[in-house]
Design brief:
- By secondary structure, the chain is mainly alpha-helical.
- It has three domains: 19-83, Arc Repressor Mutant, subunit A (Orthogonal Bundle); 87-135, Arc Repressor Mutant, subunit A, CATH 1.10.10; 137-186.
- Helices cover 76% and strands 0% of the residues.
- It contains eight helices and no strands.
- It starts with 18 loop residues before the first helix and ends with a helix.
Length: 186
């Protein structure tokens, strides 16, 4: 196959009428695909980040799964980090807030889930420490504790909360909040 589209494969005669145009049109989708992929890794990553925070590992994985070249993925990730659009710390904070709101779990399990997502240990630990210092876990834990005590009794609730990664001291604190609510309601 000749490199120059106007040359004949054998080199002795030009392509028949319209053959050169047909061959160029046949190559166009491949060239467009390569061009748009080189241009879009960054834009696709921005689109993903517009929906929710992601870890670098998630962005790399999703871009690679879409067929982007490793160099394009590296360039996109580097640019996102440099401009602050991709932040491991922001991801960890959003993840902890979301999990505490939807399905409360203790620090140890949340740390494990963050690590599974690819969050660096320092970002995960910082987000968890801040959430626990602010007491962000107490209200969701107390609500979960209330539901579990109603369904399973205090001992069953305690066992379920321990399995969800809460410490005994956190469970006692949540139970005392329940006792205070019960006492106020009477």
């Amino acid at each position: 196959m000749p490199l120059i589209p106007g040359e004949c494969p054998r080199g002795d005669a030009p392509y028949p009428e319209g053959e050169r145009q047909r061959r160029l049109e046949a190559l166009l989708p491949a060239f467009l695909f390569m061009y748009t992929h080189a241009m879009d890794a960054y834009e696709r990553a921005l689109k993903l980040l517009s929906m929710r925070e992601h870890t670098e590992k998630e962005i790399r994985s999703k871009l690679s799964a879409k067929g982007y070249a490793a160099d394009d993925v590296d360039d996109a990730v580097s640019r996102l980090i440099a401009e602050g659009s991709l932040s491991e710390r922001r991801f960890a904070e959003a993840f902890v807030r979301s999990r505490l709101r939807r399905s409360p779990e203790g620090r140890s399990i949340l740390r494990m889930r963050l690590r599974e997502k690819g969050s660096p240990a320092e970002a995960a630990d910082a987000a968890l420490s801040e959430a626990w210092e602010r007491g962000d876990h107490l209200k969701p834990l107390a609500a979960l504790c209330h539901d579990l005590v109603r369904k399973k009794g205090e001992e069953g609730a305690r066992a379920a909360l321990l399995r969800k990664g809460f410490r005994e001291s956190e469970i006692r604190e949540a139970l005392s909040l329940l006792d205070g609510d019960i006492g106020e309601g009477e």
